[in-house]
Amino acid sequence: MTLESALLGFAVVAGLMTITPGLDTALVLRSAVTQGRTQAIATAAGICTGVLVWAVAAAVGISALLTASEAAYTVLKVVGTAYMLWLGFGMLRSAFRRDPHGLTVQAENLKPAGLAQCFQRGLLTNLLNPKVGAFYVALLPQFMPSDTPHLLAGVLLGLVHNIEGMLWLSLLAYTAHRARAWLSRPKTQRLVDGLAGTAVIGFGLKLGLSRH
């Protein structure tokens, strides 16, 4: 397998994974609707950075070690579950605190989240999810050319996934921004917060209850 064919094959598999609705999609759409396009793109950048970190970690064997160590995997899973539940319940709380006229109980909820905060939210969501590392441990070896250093191949494969993710999530953010006239309605924002919060909590529970 040449490096070019490996990158092309991985691009197809990673692309299918990217467009499958999941936690990343929920976070970006929620940011686009309740905060703005710029905040949504910052969230997407954090998500993709987390993916790249896991790809590099898998390439150097850190993710493989984490997968082999039951204790390390369990600790990261518990922390990741707690973070997702905290994030999800925060979204639900925001949905219930928003009144029919778009006002919130606390004034700080009216202020858009900072770009650094949005980036951090996306980054931590993926860094604290060991299943992302397990995904790369299972997938990367199948696309590792024998004549290319593993670290270099892992970085390049991770960049392919990263670029696809940024393009797709940015498209979602742009689409949601274009529909802002409808999406900015208070009832719609409450609905988005509620759906996104429920989705995040669901992914957190799924992670916490999973055996591997």
UniProtKB/TrEMBL annotation:
Bilayer disposition of the protein: Multi-pass membrane protein
Tagged with keyword Cell membrane: yes
Chief site of localization: membrane
Subcellular location(s) per record: Cell membrane
InterPro entries (UniProt xref): LeuE-type
Keyword Kinase appears in the UniProt entry: no
TM region positions: 6-29, 41-65, 71-92, 151-171
Keywords: Cell membrane, Membrane, Transmembrane, Transmembrane helix
The protein, known as: LysE family translocator
Source organism of the structure: Deinococcus antarcticus
